[in-house]
Amino acid sequence: MRKIKNGKAAGPNNIPAEALNSDIQITAKILHVLFRKIWEEWKEGYLIKIPKKEDLSKCENHRGVTLLSVPGKVFNRVLLNRMKAPEDAQIRDQQAGFRKDRSCMDRIATLRIITEQSIAWKLSLYLNFLGYEKAFESVDRRTLWNYI
What we know:
Blueprint: H1 17-21, H2 24-34, H3 38-41, E1 45-51, E2 62-68, H4 70-90, H5 104-120, H6 141-147
Antiparallel strand pairs: 1-2
């Protein structure tokens, strides 16, 4: 519960994070009862569209944000923490994306070294990049390409 941020909008059940963080021990007991209801209520959320660009008549100029139940977020965090160790044991060490204390920058540096070595040794090298449109809008692809 300590990782749930205060000051955020409440979800469909109108329970803010501040209510859960006020007395964590009592809240934990109450949440234990509420967690049994997760499958009924906490799958719901409010989808809010936030404008990004000037021409708001186009869907791509909006970003969707879903307001979810704060107790549901706590439950999801509990599940995530319990699943992390077994999951990390099954994922190859080379996989860095979306993992704690890992950086994709290390993988980019490795790719750059491989590229430089293949040029120096006059070996063929084939690279394949998958583009997920709008999934990673903050990545400057020109800079990434120049870096490689």
